[in-house]
Write a structure and sequence with these properties.
Elements lengths: L1 H16 L12 E6 L7 E7 L10 E4 L2 E5 L5 E4 L5 E8 L6 E7 L4 E8 L18 H15 L4 E5 H4 L7 H5 L5 E6 L2 E7 L7 E5 L2 E2 L22 E5 L13 E6 L10 E11 L5 E13 L5 E26 L2 E30 L2 E28 L7 E33 L3 E26 L4 E5 L7 E5 L16 E27 L6 E24 L2 H5 L9 E9 L3 E7 L3 H10 L5 E2 L1 H6 L2 E18 L2 E22 L4 E25 L2 E12 L10 E3 L7 E3 L7 E14 L3 E13 L2 E13 L6 E13 L2 E14 L10 E15 L6 E2 L7 E11 L2 E10 L2 E6 L7 E3 L2 E11 L4 E8 L6 E5 L5 E6 L3 E9 L1
Parallel strand pairs: 2-8, 12-15, 35-39, 38-45
Antiparallel strand pairs: 1-8, 2-5, 3-4, 3-6, 6-7, 9-14, 10-11, 12-13, 14-15, 16-17, 16-51, 17-18, 18-19, 18-50, 19-20, 20-21, 21-22, 21-23, 22-25, 23-24, 25-26, 26-29, 26-30, 27-28, 30-31, 31-32, 32-33, 33-36, 34-35, 36-37, 37-40, 38-39, 40-41, 41-42, 41-43, 43-44, 44-47, 45-46, 46-49, 47-48, ...
Length: 952
Amino acid sequence: MTIQRSLIAAAIATALTLTATPNARAEPQAGAIAGEALSVGTVVGRVKESSVGASLDGAIISIDGRQLATARRNGEFRITGLAPGRYQMTVDYLGYHSVDTEVVVPADSGVQVEVSLHSTVGPADATTLDSVEVRATRDAQALALNQQRSSTNYVNVVSADLLGQFPDNNIAESTQRIPGVSIERDQGEGRYVTVRGAPKEFTTVTIDGVQLANPDNLSRGVELDTIPADVIAALEVTKALTPDMDGDAIAGNINIRTQSALDRDGLTLRASAAQGAFELGDGDNERYNATIGNRFGADENIGVIISASRSKQERYTDNVEATFADFDGVIMPEVVEIKDYEGTRTRTGLTGRFDFRIDPDNLVYFIASDSNFEDREFRDTLAIELERHEAGSNDVTGVAGRATFDKELRERTYDKSIRTYNLGGEHWLGDAWKLDWQVAQSKADKTTSPRMQYVFRSQERPRMAYDYSNPDFPVWTILGVDDAPATGVNLPEDWYEFRRLNDRYEYSEEKENSFRVDLTHAQDFLGKSGDIKFGVRSRQRDKLFNEERHRNGESDDFDALGISYSDMLLPDSWSNNFGHFLTGRRFARDIFGNYAGQLTGSSNHNRLVADSITADYTASEDVHSAYFRIDATWDKLTLVAGARYERTRLEGSAAEFNEETEEAIPQHASRSYGDFLPGLHLRYEIDQDTILRTSYSTGLNRPDFMHTAPYRIRGENAWDNVSVGNPEVEAAYAHNFDVSYERYLRPLGLLSAAAFYKRIDDPLFIANSFETWEVVNPDDGSIDIVNQRITRPENGDKGSIYGLELAWQQTFDMLPGALSGLGVYANYTWAKSNAELPFGLGETELPGTSRHNYNLALTYEKSGFNARLAYNHRSEFIQEFNITNPELNVFWDGRSSLDFTTSYRFNTGVSIFGEVNNISDTRQVRYQGQRNRVLEMEGFGRSWLVGVRYDY
């Protein structure tokens, strides 16, 4: 962390001190030099924009009216097999003036070409920055649309500069702006990504093609809140996999593309610093980032770039939870938890990239990235357990014959990191063969320490009436106790006595080593031109989770401290969530440092052996694959076909604990299986700006790693879930069908429609059930009924997801005067899913399927001023299934958010900007079965930032 912060500070300081306006650079429209190292008939080139020399990936290159190449990474393209002579070369790029130039192919060598394009905002012959209006958002939109237009399969691309115009804190939040992509949040902040209504585990995440390891021990869904939004070049969302891509992505793949110094001419220098606050709790909100890079060497063929980012957020959250359970056929509230969260989230990211273009035929690169997320949190909780419900009680009103009250303070810090290292190369072996290779490692870890919790329990166990007529703001009334409050749960402090101190440690780690080799060869037996490609890939992934739990429940040890419950509370700080749930004074934050040492050092601080052993597990998954792919082109039609075979070997280990003998019994499970994954993609170019695509692809969703181990993990409280493994659960297999129509608008825009259907065999569910047993209460010897919720992965028989995506984005440069700065960015996705539940229990939708998702952003960019008002909505979706009683299925309610960002750029390259998040102050709600059974309501308020940015 110290090295990261030093590099960030150095990069920002360097950037902010270089404030002189760069000299404008004049470039020829096209320059051509003989390439002695190139084979005869080969044209190698680069397409860039004229003002700063940024590469224009996705440019379409035609020779004598025939489209022959597309500019790829660094704006580079390659055309082979041309006879010596003179040719008319046309370069076309949305948002830029097309260029026609003459290229002469020598008789004894190849030729290198460089083409500079000018934005349609200015004149086609502009040669200086003064004659071109710089509009960064517009140029970023052009980059994304051109890459999408030239792709052979269905891909959505969003550049980092465009994403930078949205007030997003991390990669997860950035993806929600893409058609068909939605997110799941934690305390208001995006964490998991779902694509096209599929579960989050159906989507893979890569950095430059390297699959990310996952710090989460519970799910394959990558926790994308770990990665800052400021260290990327673009997001590429592939929704129809080609055979050369890993097959474990039923919904799609999100590729985070890093920046390269070879992406533009000369020096790359950007930096920003911003400060703000969160409305709830008035916590600090700050963000810093910087990027510095340059090209070196006599031919400027070496590129080095470093990007760094750091943010710190002091977040406060109001949270109320109520668990409902089935009591002899009547659903009633069982547990209520009123929680205040006070936390500091610190996010840092560092990415470095080295590129060496040895010659036109050979490139090697090395990429390293490190993202870290630390969350330090205090949580005040009042937990109420409702028991012995009286006759006539239901899920709206009733009386609990006994209510148990616990006041708790938990201090928890977790630190999670994702690191990737990627060494690779691209090599042309003559004109017919191309070799690509990559060796990579991705490693993620998450440490939770400290995780300590004081619990104080009320000695009164009164009757309590409840009224959920307003499910968001219920009313509780304590009955038959003289000194109880008239209504509410702000109990007298002298009711509480020490119950226990919990001490917990968690560590999870996941590491994947991977290797791939791809060979591409030109082919002429199918179509007028094309390639055949084949390769192999090996991925070895290992995962482990370790947990330790200790507890001291000895009241004599607490009494020896010489303090009372009231002494541990703050004098003038009250818990009053949403201005409605008053629960008393908050705990002082120093009570762990001041008092926990004597409790943990006591002989009564015991290890919970069973919980510490049964929670641990290890898992490994080795995937070896081979594929072939053929590309063929006829005038307007392009075909991509092929197949992939993946062989999977998985193992998992855990332990059971025999309570009678106090012995740990090792458990082990393993399985091997293979999958054949064919695919077919067609792209038809009706005209240069109208494209029709259709595809058939296949994909897998392997079980979460922990589910391959025979584990059993308990929560801290009696009412918490117990998670159980199922090593026999199968991987889901999907057949995917996609069709899309895209109309690209001049000067810059897109209208598109896409339909999709996924047929899924053996869909995976996290199913809930209840185990019920009688226990003797140690306080009074009475018999209590305990309903323990068990979660376990299970396979359904079959399922499907289908839907429609619509998108419209456009700049209105054609309008007169000030109106030419207007723009719109809008998309809508309708999705529906169904799946057969395990054990023949009927049908339901898949977890994560929201029927409606849409984004609408109104934009304005003119004369250095930029503004964007963005609205995002996701409708309700199911999260968990209760196979014992479907009326208790868990749903996320729909949520909308409204965000605003604005900036003004001066001619010096300096900009000032401001952001406001969650303008409408919307809450987040989960419920069980129906909306009146609120499982969780969370409020986190608005936030804002103002800052300064420098861009060379």
